[in-house]
Design goal:
The chain is an alpha/beta fold. The chain has one domain: Rossmann fold (3-Layer(aba) Sandwich). It is built from seven helices and nine strands. The longest helix has 17 residues. It starts with a helix and ends in a 22-residue tail after the last strand.
């Protein structure tokens, strides 16, 4: 009996020692190729912003000018699948921190998983969505067909029709929007914006519009806007969001 007890204790100790909790960072639009899955922030998209999060970190990178919905070499969907399989299964667990189009990428992956992450063997506790561009950007509308693949994917109607945003594989998406705009973008982006995306996108609302509050439901005129199922404002925020622009909000990964 003593040998058996010691063996059990040894197995439990080994399991606890091997388990790891990771924060997985997924970047957005970029002119650089950040291709890589591991502990290195290839071509430094996140810079020092990742340092606000303590503990073990994993960076999932891809060609920042490519469509975040695509698979293949240096593509977001392939690298997300690889990264989450390598680091977020078994005894490990992961929190995902995405920025801008990186949220588009992980939300697309979750929506197309076909089931809950748990049933698929993934241990993903939540997604912290920093300035999510998963609802598209009116700035991309201006570029239209003349932009790169990333630009074209961010056209508002394209992004909103790309997948069922209500499907998150039972992972809660916590939105962190910013309202610190700059001259020029405020004439193009409706409502509150961070100079790159408007609140309708960064708060996970079910339709585009000029909104300045991030909450479960919002009435503007005769239209009611609601957050997609599985999407919430990060609990540590007020409905006003943060007085930060699209880049500054990248250091809010602890939300």
């Amino acid at each position: 009996m003593k040998i058996t007890s010691n063996l059990i204790m040894a197995v439990l100790f080994a399991t606890s020692m091997s388990a790891e909790t990771y924060t997985v960072f997924i970047h957005g639009k970029s002119s650089k190729n950040h291709d890589g899955v591991g502990t290195t922030d290839v071509n430094s998209y996140w810079g020092t912003n990742a340092n606000v999060v303590s503990g073990a970190k994993v960076f999932i990178g891809y060609d920042g000018s490519s469509d975040p919905r695509t698979f293949g070499a240096a593509r977001a969907q392939t690298n997300i699948s690889t990264g989450l399989t390598n680091y977020c299964k078994g005894a490990n667990s992961c929190k995902v921190v995405c920025h801008s189009a990186g949220c588009y990428a992980i939300e697309y992956w979750l929506a197309n998983l076909g089931d809950t992450t748990t049933s698929k063997g993934f241990n993903i506790t939540k997604v912290t969505a920093l300035a999510a561009a998963s609802g598209g950007s009116e700035l991309a509308n201006l570029v239209g067909g003349s932009g790169n693949a990333m630009d074209r994917s961010l056209v508002v109607t394209t992004a909103r029709g790309a997948y069922n945003h209500n499907l998150t594989a039972s992972v809660l998406v916590n939105h962190v929007p910013g309202y610190k705009t700059r001259f020029g973008s405020s004439f193009i982006l409706p409502g509150a914006d961070d100079y790159a995306v408007a609140f309708h996108s960064s708060c996970g609302y079910n339709r585009a519009g000029g909104l300045d509050k991030c909450q479960s439901s919002f009435v503007s005129g005769q239209t009611t806007y609601t957050q997609y199922a599985g999407h919430v404002r990060a609990p540590s925020l007020t409905a006003a969001g943060l007085n930060k622009n699209h880049s500054e909000i990248m250091n809010e990964g602890t939300r």
